[in-house]
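Suppose you are handed a protein chain with no further information: no name, no annotation, nothing but its sequence. What can you learn? This example shows the usual starting point.
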Amino acid sequence: MKHRITWLGAITAVGALVLSGCSTASTAPSTDAAGDLTPITLQLQWFAQAQFAGYYAALDQGYYEDEGLDVTIDEGGSDIVPQDVLAAGDADYAISWVPKVLGSIEQGANITDVAQIFERSATTQISLKDKGITTAADLAGKNVGSWGYGNEWELFAGMQKAGVELGDINLIQQAFDMTGFLAGDIAAAQAMTYNEYAQVLETINPDTGELFQPEELNVIDWNDEGTAMLQDSIWANADKLDSDADYADNTVKFIKASIKGWIYAANNPSIAAGIVTAAGSTLGESHQLWMTNEVSKLIFPSTNGVGMIDEAAWANTVDIAMNTKNETGATIITTAPPATAYSNEYVTKALDELKADGVDVMGTDWKPTEVTLNEGGN
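A reasonable first move is to predict its three-dimensional structure. Written in structure tokens, the prediction is:
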């Protein structure tokens, strides 16, 4: 579904724009030959939620317009593959996980990761303390949940690294919620830090009569296990980057405005959560704020500047994609991806412009806020 926000200013923006003293002033928007803003479509990989807060904030705060872009954000869904939409020419940019796109590239999609927005992975495997599951090695002999659909590879890689084969566990097809976990059918469930983990903490523990607490859970973090894979990236059309100078220029502008949006969201999580809610998200208020805060942790502090693609992290993702097998013995890809699969050219230009404007693109001093979750995420 298409969702264009046209209510700029409906939510009053307060607080700092950047992580360290930056003016919000900008030059006049660039325009196309007709004197109008250049229309741009961004395809998300899921419905409107704070996982995409930076893009909605950039739209709401006018950062895209400042760059001469008229951006429409298309929501995703279970039947939408963002990279396919991009490759088909039905969107100018798309948001998707690197391992999922690597498979599409091997199948012929000529697209490029032009900005690695999430530096860290949000995928975890969670369990109750009494299950005694603290590392991937402890999953042997347990009911282990996975959503599938390309979300399983960090789990499989972590298990295989620990010497646990798929035949050593009872793999459960997990719904996109925590119902099976809370019912006791799944001992270790897949959970994103910004979503399903919070769903558990928003639920009453029948043994205590209070909401579940973090200390009642064990969390396997694939960043710690060494099998984290790169997730939300901005993808562009590789053919157009090579042949269309205007598209290449607009790519820099789009990345620049998006990074400003993410910085704004990190510094103004309550406002950013409200912007996403106004854009159509149905998540509860405290859950939306939690998501905004947790997503910011995946970006800040940044090692090399927001959006820069770390070569070691990319290589690790490719290695896992080529060498980790699923239950059928298949891997995500069979050969190394082409050189066009990623490029730091455009994000480097965007970061240089932001730094010249005095924007802190590292967020070294950024601190997450404390979020109190309410029952049901309300």
